[in-house]
TrEMBL record:
Keyword set includes Transport: yes
Entry GO MF terms: ATP binding
The organism's taxonomic lineage, starting at the top: Bacteria, Pseudomonadati, Pseudomonadota, Alphaproteobacteria, Rhodobacterales
Span of domain ABC transporter: 1-227
Organism field: Sulfitobacter aestuarii
The name this protein goes by in its record: ABC transporter ATP-binding protein
Similarity comment: Belongs to the ABC transporter superfamily.
PROSITE patterns: ABC_TRANSPORTER_1 (PS00211), ABC_TRANSPORTER_2 (PS50893)
Pfam families: ABC_tran (PF00005)
Domain of life: Bacteria
Keyword Chloroplast on entry: no
Length: 240
């Protein structure tokens, strides 16, 4: 399946009051990174694309660039890991296929579990894992779905700095050519990963000028660091 672009245009209301206006065009086959203050509606945008309940109403349009339905082409990683506590790590990773009545590719699941650094923990249940391990298990489950559109809601937030960088690089490698929308609070992450960087506020969403190099960018690249610093300054001023 090809990776379509996605456009969102409209107004979202919560309890009858406008929460945000949105006019976004997410390029197909690239990473878009979305930042903004807590409560502005970033996670709600992901749920709108997914067609999930949000508690509010959206007046507008959500469409793929090829005009085909998105429903069967999207994988989603929520802020919470949503691992089932009675299943092993491995069975959580292949849960999507099980729920669809499909036979999961166990060899691929094992490879993904190894690549997220959890090979020694594959038979453990979520209660025996740390928060960072659980988040990596949820990442492996999302990658296992192999969809052309991938929505990630703060997927690396529970990880230490070194593991975070490793998982960013792994995700960039395995999701190359997919349409990815990443919600993050980390300017460094957006500056490193985003082909398109978006800053959301109640007044709307603006495109932020990213570094000239193509993602994934080197951690110490001067242009990446400059983008990170400018973006952090902007976010701090917006929150003041």
């Amino acid at each position: 399946m090809s990776a379509p672009g996605i456009s969102l245009n409209g107004r979202y209301r919560l309890e009858g009051r406008p929460l945000f206006d949105v006019a976004l065009d997410l390029p197909g086959g690239q990473w878009s990174c979305l930042l903004g203050p807590s409560g502005v509606g970033k996670s709600t945008l992901l749920r709108l694309i997914l067609g999930l309940a949000t508690g509010g109403t959206f007046d507008g349009t959500i469409r793929a660039s090829d005009d085909a339905p998105l429903s069967d082409r999207v994988s989603y990683m929520a802020q919470s890991d949503l691992l089932l506590p009675w299943l092993s790590l491995t069975e959580n990773v292949v849960l999507g296929a099980r729920l669809r009545g499909e036979s999961p590719d166990m060899a691929r699941a094992e490879r993904l579990i190894e690549r997220v650094g959890l090979g020694a923990h594959r038979d453990k249940t979520p209660g025996a894992l740390s928060g960072g391990m659980r988040q990596r298990a949820a990442l492996a489950r999302t990658l296992m779905e192999d969809r052309p559109v991938v929505l990630l809601d703060e997927p690396f937030s529970a990880l230490d700095a070194g593991t975070r960088a490793d998982m960013q690089e792994l995700s960039a490698e395995l999701l190359a050519g997919r349409t990815v929308l990443l919600v993050t609070h980390d300017p460094a992450e957006a500056s490193r990963l985003g082909a398109l960087i978006l800053v959301m506020s109640r007044a709307g969403t603006q495109v932020w000028p990213g570094p000239p190099a193509a993602p994934i960018r080197a951690v110490h690249d001067p242009a990446t660091l400059a983008c990170q610093a400018a973006l952090l300054d902007h976010l701090r001023k917006a929150a003041a």
